[in-house]
Protein: Slp family lipoprotein
Organism: Dyella agri
Amino acid sequence: MRFAAVSARILLPALLLGLAACAPAPIYKVAPGTIAAMPMQVAQSPEQYARGQVIWGGRVVGVSNLPDHSEIEILAYPLDASQRPKFGTDGSGRFIAILPGYAEPMNYPNGAPITVDGQLAGSRAGKVGEADYVFPLVKVAQSHVWTADEMRSGHPNVSFGVGVGVGIR
């Protein structure tokens, strides 16, 4: 019995450490003072978060190219430890990512998972369908569109159970 207790104390932390090691590191360094609020919260009182740093992500809704910059509308989702959007939950509001110059829409396809790092630059009233909406604006320093492989990486393909199973890939 004593051997089982000692083994469990050693194996459990090793197993948890091994699973944690599978997760890729965050892609952007979180600076001190980075705002943890989601776009929905910032839209309710943008002056409270003025010029704060954020790392937000979600799904691309659309790209607009203007004469001197581009805007990407994004439906926000919480981020995992690697700063990938987690789509298993409801969206957390929308925001507009502002990029300098021209953003090729093919590089930011509708529905693509994206993470941006940047500074809040106020808000703008707009519409989602026929509904009025307040969009927080993020002046983007860095952005990353995630590939399907990147979204899957770090998610262990391990399952436990009893019985017979068939997996097709």
In short: The domain at 39-152 is CATH 2.40.50.140 (OB fold (Dihydrolipoamide Acetyltransferase, E2P)). The first strand starts at residue 53 and ends at 65. The longest helix spans residues 2-21.
